[in-house]
Amino acid sequence: MEQLPTLETPRLVLRQLELRDVPALFGVFSNRRVTRYTSHPPFAAMQDAEELLTRIDCGRLGDVFYEWGIADQKTDVVVGTVTLFHWERAHHRADLGYAVAADLWNRGFGTEAVGRAIEYAFQELDLHRLEADVDPRNAGSLRLLEKLGFVREGFRPHTYLVDGEWQDSVLLGLVRPDVR
Ligand SMILES: CC(C)(COP(=O)(O)OP(=O)(O)OC[C@H]1O[C@@H](n2cnc3c(N)ncnc32)[C@H](O)[C@@H]1OP(=O)(O)O)[C@@H](O)C(=O)NCCC(=O)NCCS
Question: Which residue in 10, 47, 171, 172 is a FRET match for 160, CA 20 to 30 A apart?
Fold first, then answer.
C-alpha cells in the first residue's frame, strides 16, 4: 500500500509513520518496560528507530505488513504503534502487535487504538481472523485483547529465547465477530 489510511478514534489518530517521528519512536521502544515481553531488546540508539521506520516502509510497500503510528489527536505526537503482520492473504489471517509508551499505560489508549485497527482489518482489509501471541506474565496485554473479544486458544511453552530466558506464550484468536 502506497500510503496507510489515517484512522481516527475519540482521542487518537492511527497514521503513517514519518521521519519526524523517529525521536518519539525511540522514546517508546527504548523503554525496557515496553520491550520486556516482546522478542526484541530495547532500542539502544536513535538508529534503531530509523531502521524500524525503514522496515515499516518496506513492509507496507511490499504489502507484507502494516504498522501504524498511534498519535495523540491534539498534539500529533506518536505514543505507540499497532501492527498487522504474518499476513496470510490466502487464508485472510494476520497477527496483531501493539505498544504504547509506558508513561501512558492504563488510560485506555491501547484498547482504543487496537480496537480501531481491528475494525479496519475486518471491514476494509477483508481479514477473517486475527491472532496474538502473549507472554502469560503480560497481564495488561492479555486484558486488552480479552476486552476486545479475543479468546485464549492455546499455550506454547518456551516460544522465545530473550536475554537467555525462555519465554512462554498464550495464543489468542479473534474470528470476525459477524461471522463467528
Ligand atoms: C499492552 C499495552 C499496549 C496496553 O496499553 P494500555 O494503553 O495500557 O492499555 P489500556 O489502558 O487500554 O488497557 C490495559 C488494561 O489492562 C489492565 N492492566 C494493565 N496492567 C495490568 C496488570 N499488571 N494486571 C492486570 N491488568 C492490567 C488495565 O487495568 C486495563 O484494563 P481495564 O480497562 O479493565 O482497567 C501496554 O501495556 C504496552 O505497550 N505494553 C508493552 C508492549 C507489549 O507488551 N505489547 C504486546 C505484546 S503481546
Answer: 47
In a mutational test of the pocket of ligand 1, which residue from 95, 100, 112, 159 has the highest number of ligand atoms less than 8 Å from its CB? 100
Would the CB of 83 count as within 6 Å of ligand 1? no
Q: Cα(174) to centroid of ligand 1, in Å?
A: 18
For the 7-129 domain, the top CATH level (class) is alpha beta
The whole-number average pLDDT for the span 24-45 is 95
| C-alpha 115 to ligand 1 mean position (Å) | 13
Please give the Cα distance from 100 to 97 (Å, whole number): 11
Alpha-carbon distance of 144 to 45, in angstroms, equals 29
pLDDT tens track for 83-105: 999 999 999 999 999 999 999 99
Cβ neighbors of 156 (< 8 A, separation 6 or more) are 133, 168, 169, 171
Q: How many degrees, rounded to 5, is the angle at CA 42 between CA 41 and CA 48?
A: 100
CA 44 vs. chain centroid, Å, equals 20
Distance 117 CA to ligand 1 centre (A): 16
Q: pTM above the 0.90 mark?
A: yes
